[in-house]
Write a structure and sequence with these properties.
By secondary structure, the protein is mostly helical. It is built from 20 helices and two strands.
Length: 534
């Protein structure tokens, strides 16, 4: 037998292989050029993947619009202006897609930004509850010209109304599409109002527009975000000083969290009745008060033992306590989505309902009933648009403006419901989009203020960071440079808490929404009339 030992009985040494086999080329260290090429390849692969996904989403969106075209054609057989109705149906579907991609993000983005919900979970919850709100409580009567902006009697004929409403839908949808691409959440209500005003002016003159209503819309640009920001900041300030800044955070959470959730339940109950179900049922003030008190007591009785059980074993620190806000935050996202679907679906299907009515009757009416198939187009479009394109704005609103934990996100969600109720009681015009974003910025600015009060050493450290460079300057330039350095340090710290770039982008988008959609809609109306006449 072969043996592994030498004749002396000692084991033979193992063969020593050279570190680099002679038949292989020597290993070459990567050069900076190789690293750059590898980085470029990775970027190209990422771009290709993103482009492929975008192309797939666009393709699915086009398939949805083709389905809307066939569905609208099947429902509109035999009516006058058949092709105008079908085209308007497709444009309404396109508008609904953009509402889902842009406006719905405001309802679920705080929950995503605080990691109470995953992006997939948020998309699923929002799509289900938006569609349910649109179908169940979307309303059966709506003004033919959105929000009473244009007097229907001033429109000359049914054909004029059809062209005006089609141009308004397309203009609003195009602007929402562009705003979504730019990462700017805007109000769909303001978009369609501006578009209807523009096409109404082009069709019947400036006198046809109710400028008092337009003034209220302009006022809401300031009222909505201001109210949302102040109320959200107040709620968050209470949560911090009543719970998070306490020595015994667990005991404070047991005491106050059931009350806060009960307030949220009462607010959402009144919110859903007044905004979500307002077109189906309009109870009086006493009934609304009873609904709010009943919802408060019921929620408090249910939530209190749940919080006691959930708090057992939690560490007495902030990161543990804020997890108690997870379930209320998810419920808030679902309820906000339901109310939004019930309230804002008319922005997509209201003009389409007016078009269908004008085509069926051959005349212009002040109010019309929305056919169920029209409501289905709006509900399905919102859900599909959210699923295909909503993730971009959800991430932007939830993660890129300011850092959110679940306590901050809860303050934003509660503020949205409370602000709408307060504004409705005072008769103030508000926008749900502007309220939510105002609340988001209010929370961020409160963080800045508290950070300066509780941790002033951060700013001192940032300002002192440039002390070595300051010593190299001439004495006459040192004072000015030191002031600039402190100002720069404060700005750097603020950018970590609220990103000013997003604030400026959103405000600019809000300011140009109504005039831009008005001009675009007027141009589209003139163009469509010229093409149709030719």
């Amino acid at each position: 037998m072969p043996s592994d030992s030498t004749s002396s009985g000692r084991p033979s040494p193992r063969p020593q292989w050279p570190s680099q086999p002679p038949d292989l080329p020597p290993v070459r260290k990567p050069t900076p050029l190789d690293k750059d090429l590898k980085r470029i390849r990775r970027m190209e692969e990422a771009v290709a993947t993103t482009t492929g996904r975008t192309s797939t989403r666009i393709g699915l969106g086009l398939l949805f619009l083709i389905g809307v075209c066939l569905f609208a054609g099947a429902q509109s057989g035999g009516v006058e202006q058949f092709w105008l109705v079908v085209i308007a149906g497709v444009i309404a579907g396109y508008m609904a897609l953009n509402i889902g991609a842009n406006d719905v993000a405001n309802n679920v983005s705080p929950a995503v930004g605080s990691q109470a919900l995953t992006l997939t979970g948020a998309l699923a919850i929002a799509a289900i509850f938006e569609a349910a709100g649109a179908i169940i409580a979307g309303g059966d009567v709506v003004a033919t010209v959105s929000k009473g902006i244009v007097d229907p009697a001033r429109l000359a004929s049914a054909e004029t109304l059809i062209h005006a409403m089609t141009a308004a839908l397309l203009a609003a949808a195009l602007w929402l599409n562009l705003a979504t691409h730019l990462g700017a959440p805007v109000s769909t209500t303001h978009s369609i109002v501006g578009a209807v005003a523009g096409s109404g002016i082009a069709a019947a003159g400036a006198d046809a527009v109710d400028w008092a209503v337009m003034g209220q819309i302009a006022a809401s640009w300031v009222i909505s975000p201001a109210l949302g920001g102040v109320i959200a900041a107040a709620i968050l300030l209470f949560v911090k000083y009543a719970i998070l800044f306490r020595e015994d955070k667990i005991a404070a959470a047991k005491r106050w969290l059931p009350i806060l959730v009960a307030i949220m339940a009462a607010a959402f109950s009144v919110y859903l009745v007044t905004k979500g179900l307002g077109r189906l049922w309009k109870p009086g003030t006493s009934i609304l008060l009873l609904i709010g008190v009943g919802a408060f007591l019921l929620a408090w009785a249910i939530v209190r033992p749940m919080v006691n059980r959930a708090s057992q074993g939690l560490e007495n620190r902030r990161k543990s306590v804020v997890t108690l806000f997870t379930v209320p935050l998810i419920c808030a996202a679902a309820l906000l989505s339901f109310a939004h679907g019930a309230n804002d679906v008319a922005n997509a299907v209201g003009p389409l309902a007016a078009i269908v009515s004008a085509s069926n009757t051959g005349g212009v009416q002040g109010t019309v009933s929305i056919p169920f198939w029209v409501m289905l187009v709006g509900a399905a479009g919102i859900a599909v648009g959210l699923a295909l394109f909503g993730s971009r704005l959800i991430r932007a609103v939830g993660t890129q403006i300011t850092k959110l934990d679940r306590a901050r996100a809860f303050a934003i969600a509660l503020s949205a419901a409370v602000t709408v109720i307060v504004a409705s009681g005072l008769g103030l015009p508000v926008s749900s989009t502007h309220i939510t974003l105002g609340a988001l910025f209010g929370v961020g600015f409160l963080r800045e203020r508290l950070d300066r009060i509780r941790k002033p050493h951060r700013y001192a450290a940032l300002a002192a960071h440039e002390s070595e460079a300051l010593r190299l300057l001439d004495p006459e330039d040192r004072d000015l440079a030191e002031k600039k350095g402190q100002k720069k340090a404060r700005k750097a710290q603020k950018r970590k808490l609220v990103r000013r770039q997003h604030l400026l982008t959103i405000v600019a988008a809000w300011l140009i929404t109504v005039p831009l959609t008005a001009v675009l809609s007027a141009g589209l109306y003139v163009f469509s009339r010229a093409v149709w006449a030719g």
